Amino acid sequence: MSSSDPEVPQIFHRTVVEKKNFRATCEDSVYSLVDVVVVDIQLDATKPAFGEAEKGYCDISAFREGIRTLGQYIQPHCMVLVETTVPPGTCEKVVKPILEEEFIKRGIDIVANPPLVAHSYERVMPGARYVESIRDFWRVFSGINPKSIELCREFLSNVLNVKEFPLTQLDSTNASELSKTMENTYRAVNIALTLEWAKFAEQIGVDIFKVRDAIRKRQGTHDNLLRPSLGVGGYCLTKDPVLANWAMGALFGAQGSLDFAIRSVNVHDTMPLHTIEIIRSVFPNLHNLKVAVLGVSYLEDVGDTRHSPSKTLVEFLRKDLALVKAHDPYVEAWPELEEIQVQSELTNVLPEADVVIFAVGHSQYKTLEPKQLLEMCNTKPLIVDCSNFLSDATLDTYKALGCKVRGVGKGHIVN
Ligand SMILES: NC(=O)c1ccc[n+]([C@@H]2O[C@H](COP(=O)([O-])OP(=O)(O)OC[C@H]3O[C@@H](n4cnc5c(N)ncnc54)[C@H](O)[C@@H]3O)[C@@H](O)[C@H]2O)c1
Fold first, then answer.
1. pLDDT tens-digit series, residues 68-116
2. What is the distance between the alpha carbons of residues 100 and 60, in angstroms, rounded to a whole number?
C-alpha cells in the first residue's frame, strides 16, 4: 500500500539508494545474524458471528510458528521486540516458552542465556503524518527480564525521538500489552458512547455534533469526547478489545469478561445498519433503489479499507437488493469486497442515484457544490451525511434544491 506521507519515499531513498542499509528478505537464516528482531506480524481476532463479539477469539497458531522460527535461528544475545498488538500475557506465556523450547533443542543453556523478549506497542496513525506518528510520539515498553528492558530502552532510544518524547517503562510485558489493548478499548468505548447518543439525538431533534462541541469546551476532562460516524473500521479498534477479552480466560484462566470492551465492538460492528434505517425512513423498500456510496476506506483521506464500515453498509444494502455503486478517490480495488468495482470518477456513480451517502469525509467531497452534485445525479436524491461532513448551510441548499436530507446524529435537519 502506498503512503500519503511524503517522508516515506524520502526514507526509502535514504536507506535503499544512499546508505544501502535497508534489505528485505524472506530468508529465515538471516535471523542468526541480527542483534534485534522487531516482530510486527499480524494477529487477528476472529468474530464468528456478526454483532456478537463476545464469541470472538484469537487464533495464535501462525504467530506461534513465526516465533518458533525465530527460536530456531536467533543468537541468545538477540532481543526479540514484539510490537504486534498481542493479547495480554503473550510475551510471558507464549513467546518466552517457545524460545526456551527452541533454545533447549539447540543445546543453549537457558539459565545462562535466558531469551530476551520485550514488548513495545505501535501508536501509528495512517495518513500524511505517518512517520511522525511513529518517531515523534510517546512509547510504552517493558521486557520479561532486566536485560531485555535495558536492550529495548537502548534500541528505542536509537530510533525514536526520545528527547522530546521520553519512553514510558512499565513493570512487565503483561502491563505493556494490557496498556495497548486498554488504550484502544478506551477509544472504542468512547466512540461507541457517541454512536448511542447520536441515535438518541436523532429521535429528539438534536444535533449531536453541536452538543459535542459544547461538552468539549470542558478542557482537561471532556475535550476528548470523540464523534459518531457511519461506524468504526480499521485494523485496531475492531479487534483489540476482543484480544484482551479472550486473553483473560484463555491465557490467564481468569473469571469474568470485559463487558464494556465487547459491547463497544458490537456497537461499532452493527452501526452501519443504522444508516440503512435512516434510508428506510424515507424509502421503506430498498429493492432496486440506486444508492451511491461516497467513500469506502475507514478513514478520511486514507485508502485503507480494512474492516471499513462501508463494507457492512454495502453488504446489507445489497442483501436488501439495493443497486449500489461506490466511489473513493484513494481506493483502486476493494479486496474485502471484490465484487464492487470502486470508481474514481463521481460521474460513474452519481447518475440516476436515488440516495447519495457521504460515508467518509474525504477532502475531495468538500469542494463538491450541491448544484454540481445534483447535475451529475440528474435526480433529487436523498442525501445522507454520515460524518458531519456537510454544514447546515450546505444541507439547507440541498433542501432548497428539492432533496431530502438526513444525517447520523443530525436530529435537527428533518425535512
Ligand atoms: N497499521 C496501523 O495503523 C497500526 C496501528 C497501531 C498498531 N498496529 C499493530 O501493528 C501490527 C501490525 O499491523 P500492520 O497494519 O502492519 O499489519 P499488516 O498485516 O499490514 O503487516 C503484517 C506483515 O507481517 C508479515 N508476516 C506475517 N507472518 C510473518 C512471519 N512469520 N514472518 C515474517 N513476516 C510475517 C505479513 O506478510 C505482513 O506483511 C498489528 O498488531 C496491529 O494491530 C497497527
1. 999 999 999 999 999 999 999 999 999 999 999 999 999 999 999 999 9
2. 18
297, 307, 346 from 362: Cα distances, Å? 9, 17, 13
pTM of the model: 0.93
Domain membership of residue 92 as a residue range: 7-180
Question: Residue 314: inside a domain, yes or no?
Answer: yes
Task: Decide if 382 contacts 356 (C-beta within 8 A).
Answer: yes
**Which domain-ending residue is among 156, 180, 204?**
180
Alpha helices in 251-320 (DSSP H): 259-270, 272-280, 309-319
- How does pLDDT run across 290-319, given as a tens digit for each residue? 999 999 999 999 999 999 999 999 999 999
User: Measuring from each residue's beta carbon to the nearest atom of ligand 1, which residues come in under 6 Å?
Assistant: 40-43, 66, 84-85, 122, 124, 126, 235-236
Ligand 1 atom showing the smallest separation from residue 126 Cα:
3
Angle 34-38-42 from CA coordinates, rounded to 5°? 140
Name the percent of the chain lying above pLDDT 70: 100
Inside any domain, residue 256: no
Identify whether the C-beta of residue 407 lies closer than 8 Å to the C-beta of residue 390.
yes
Domain count, the chain: 2
Ligand 1 centroid distance, CA of 16 (Å): 21
Mutation test residue for ligand 1: of 42, 83, 129, 130, the one with most atoms within 8 Å of CB: 42
Cα 235 to ligand 1 centre (Å): 10
Q: What distance in angstroms lies between residue 237's CA and the mean position of ligand 1's atoms?
A: 15
CATH code of the domain containing 333: 3.40.50.720
Residue nearest to atom 17 of ligand 1 (CA): 42
Same domain for 174 and 35: yes
For residue 193, is it within any domain? no
- The minimum-distance atom of ligand 1 relative to the CA of 180 is 7
